[in-house]
Amino acid sequence: MEGFHALIFLIILLYVISTAKYATLGIEPAASDRAALLSFKSLVDDDPFGALSSWNNGSLHYCRWHGVSCSRRHPHRVTALDLKSLRLAGFVSPAVAKLTFLRRIDLSDNMLDGSIPEDLGSLRRLQYLNLSENSLRGMIPSSLGNCSNLQVLNLRDNKLDGEIPPTLSRLSGLRKLILSQNMLQGTIPDSIGNLSSLLILSLDNNNLSGAMPSSFGSLLSLQILEIQYTSLTGTIPSTLTNLSSLNLLLLRENNLHGEIPHFAELPFLSYLDCTSNNLSGTIPISLGRLSSLEYLSLGMNNLTGEIPSSLYNLSSLNTFQLYYNQLEGTLPSDIGNALPNLQVLVMTKNQLRGRIPASLSNASELNYLELESNAFHGTIPPSLGALQSLSWLTLALNRLEARKLSEWSFITALTNCTSLQVLDLRYNLLQGMMPKSIVNFSTSLNFLLLSNNQISGIIPTEIEKLINLTFLDMSVNDLRGTIPIEISHLWQLQYLDLSDNMLSGEILPTLGNLTLMDKLYLGSNEFEGAIPPTLSKMLMLELLNLSNNRLSGSIPQEVLRLSSLASFLDLSHNLLNGSLPLEVGNLINIRALDLSNNRLSGEIPDTIGKCTILEILHLENNLFQGSIPSSISNLRGLKKLDLSKNFYSGQIPAFLDELPDLKYLNLSFNSFEGQVPMKGVFKNASEVSLIGNSKLCGGNPELHLPKCTSDAFAAKHHSDYKLKVILIPVGGAILCLIIIMGLLGMGSPQII
Ligand SMILES: *[C@@H]1O[C@H](CO)[C@@H](O)[C@H](O)[C@H]1NC(C)=O
Ligand SMILES: *[C@@H]1O[C@H](CO)[C@@H](O)[C@H](O)[C@H]1NC(C)=O
Ligand SMILES: *[C@@H]1O[C@H](CO)[C@@H](O)[C@H](O)[C@H]1NC(C)=O
Ligand SMILES: *[C@@H]1O[C@H](CO)[C@@H](O)[C@H](O)[C@H]1NC(C)=O
Ligand SMILES: *[C@@H]1O[C@H](CO)[C@@H](O)[C@H](O)[C@H]1NC(C)=O
Ligand SMILES: *[C@@H]1O[C@H](CO)[C@@H](O)[C@H](O)[C@H]1NC(C)=O
Ligand SMILES: *[C@@H]1O[C@H](CO)[C@@H](O)[C@H](O)[C@H]1NC(C)=O
Ligand SMILES: *[C@@H]1O[C@H](CO)[C@@H](O)[C@H](O)[C@H]1NC(C)=O
Ligand SMILES: *[C@@H]1O[C@H](CO)[C@@H](O)[C@H](O)[C@H]1NC(C)=O
Ligand SMILES: *[C@@H]1O[C@H](CO)[C@@H](O)[C@H](O)[C@H]1NC(C)=O
Ligand SMILES: *[C@@H]1O[C@H](CO)[C@@H](O)[C@H](O)[C@H]1NC(C)=O
Ligand SMILES: *[C@@H]1O[C@H](CO)[C@@H](O)[C@H](O)[C@H]1NC(C)=O
């Protein structure tokens, strides 16, 4: 019995002690949890949704405040703050650290700024800290390494700087470490390899430098490793290739160099992206062991050698990108059977040769095929027409051929691809008549690029069926005939290049109906007649090139009203006559204006001075006369001025030597006279041409002009003092002369 009583007593005692403990935990810290929460609220200075309006001294218990959760066992202790996406602005109060039972803090996707309070390091129970998508500044407090229960640390998308604190490597239970999109600097601490529970490591978009620590090889649980868009250097540590749980390995846009390491079999790796580094050497055969790989991009590196055939064992591959390397060899003829899930194949800018495999049609989901800038030859396989999803086909800059009609059959086949948006066949060896069936391409076609081939024939009138065309380039071919009026119905056209063909007839006035047009090139053809004033309806036109035709008549003032013209206006090498309309002054955005080699006459209008962006002005080989207008001095950006082979006269204006960027000045074969300026562009004889102006003198001795003999001209340029000394008496004398002649009733000042 004694023992039994003793036991009861002990139980009661334990109960009293434990309730007393509860009492201290439940009442005393409760007050401080409330105070801590109110302190948190006090630093939130904007709460547009009123999320914290329940947080006040009223009757509602703070455990029921919005976003607050409390412990079940310790009913007054706050265990979670869930306040994401509430547009809260202000600072994070250090008082949060007084909520010592906190296991979870989610303040993500708000507008908090200030720094992360150092005191958070005292939250020993904290498991989840998500402060992503705010504007937090300063360094990551190294004290966070004390939160020994932390499993998730997400600080993505803030403005944190400084280095990654090595103390984080003490967080042995950490599963997700996400520090991407900040301004973190320095190297990745070697000790990070201690985070043996890590599943996700994301350090994208920071200013990290140095090499990737080889200790990464100890992160044996790692599933996602993302270090993209940083400044990491060094090689890819070979230890990475052993991370057998890895699913995604993303190293895009760093400065990694050296070879791609040999991979062990990583049964889960599905995504490998090393685009835009400086990796060299050959592609390791061992990549063929990554049997789950779906995405492989090694583009924009310095890889050489052939594509290892083992890669064609990766039958799950849907994206295969090796663009911008120096890869050689051929694509296997059965590639489409080997990689049946391929959706994206991009091999642009390598040295691949051989034929385009017809079997690609067996990769039935292929929608993006880019083989531009290689050395592929042979014909384009018509089988590509079976690719129902094909939307992007660029084969430009190869040696692809079509000689016989049958070799053009791919065009008809491609009309089956109802999703086709881009077809680029520029710079190949396609010869012969343009197949009529191009007009049967899918109406989804946006880009049709056939330039720099040897395509002959006419532009079919039914081209109007391609109503979605925005970009049409048929330049540098052998097209003849006229531009069909139906082109004017392609109202979405923004870019039309038909230059360098043998097209003739008039430039259609209805082209002006293409009001979205941005760039129009019709140069180097045999167009004749006048420039239609209706082109002025193209209010977005940035560039117009009608050069090297046989256009006649005057330059329509309407066209010069197109202040949208910002790149260049080239009407050179035609038969245009008349004067340059005053409206040229509306070209306030133009960079280059070329009216050379026409029969334009009269003076350059003063309004030219309003084209203040002008860098290049070609007026050579016309019939212009008069003097160089002083308004040219407003063209402060002028780099190149050619007025040669005209009938300009008068002095070379001194302001030309003050144009800071002028590096080419050709005034030859005119009738300029007098002293040549010495400064600016005139200092360098190689930048100036003045030949064929018999009355010029002085200037840079390298110009080999005669010395100036006329004192008046010479003096004018030498010194203002001399100028005055001479001019005042001379002027006085002339004035006297005029007065005397006036008095004598003689005719007036022509004498001067
Ligand atoms: C809440 O009440 C306490 C005690 O009554 C007081 O000290 C504190 O200033 C109050 N806080 C607010 C925000 O009203
Ligand atoms: C953190 O918050 C962001 C934004 O609310 C959310 O998208 C993300 O899933 C959270 N991250 C983690 C690791 O829980
Ligand atoms: C917490 O971390 C800081 C910085 O790493 C350290 O100086 C401090 O001693 C730690 N505090 C405790 C209580 O462990
Ligand atoms: C942590 O990493 C460092 C450097 O890699 C190492 O020296 C240390 O032994 C590791 N500590 C633990 C506990 O693994
Ligand atoms: C990145 O760091 C380098 C030096 O490590 C520094 O020169 C550069 O300005 C930094 N860039 C940014 C965007 O912070
Ligand atoms: C990868 O693991 C294998 C065996 O698991 C080991 O022999 C090899 O040394 C490891 N390689 C690296 C680079 O760590
Ligand atoms: C790329 O690496 C090579 C050596 O492999 C080096 O010569 C070159 O300068 C590097 N290029 C860049 C852009 O870093
Ligand atoms: C490619 O590698 C060669 C030889 O190592 C090097 O000279 C070259 O600069 C590299 N190219 C680039 C773009 O880094
Ligand atoms: C492709 O895989 C098969 C079997 O999985 C293997 O026998 C063959 O050697 C592999 N081919 C290459 C080129 O690696
Ligand atoms: C294109 O479609 C036509 C009719 O539907 C069919 O006869 C032809 O075989 C198809 N061409 C290709 C390359 O699939
Ligand atoms: C025209 O192109 C746009 C954008 O590419 C697309 O959304 C639209 O469906 C196309 N129209 C037709 C008739 O294909
Ligand atoms: C051009 O537009 C005018 C007026 O909007 C219209 O009358 C004419 O039919 C159009 N011409 C063509 C070829 O689209």
From TrEMBL:
Secretion signal span: 1-22
Record's bilayer topology term: Single-pass type I membrane protein
A cellular component annotation (GO) from this entry: plasma membrane
Main localisation: membrane
Primary enzyme class: transferase
EC number(s) given by UniProt: 2.7.11.1
GO molecular function: ATP binding; protein serine/threonine kinase activity
Keywords per UniProt: ATP-binding, Cell membrane, Glycoprotein, Kinase, Leucine-rich repeat, Membrane, Nucleotide-binding, Receptor, Repeat, Serine/threonine-protein kinase, Signal, Transferase, Transmembrane, Transmembrane helix
Classification via InterPro entries: Leu-rich_rpt, Leu-rich_rpt_typical-subtyp, LRR_dom_sf, LRR_N_plant-typ
Localization per record: Cell membrane
Domain Leucine-rich repeat-containing N-terminal plant-type: 31-71
Positions of transmembrane segments: 726-746
Record keyword Nucleotide-binding present: yes
Entry similarity comment: Belongs to the RLP family.
Protein name, per record: non-specific serine/threonine protein kinase
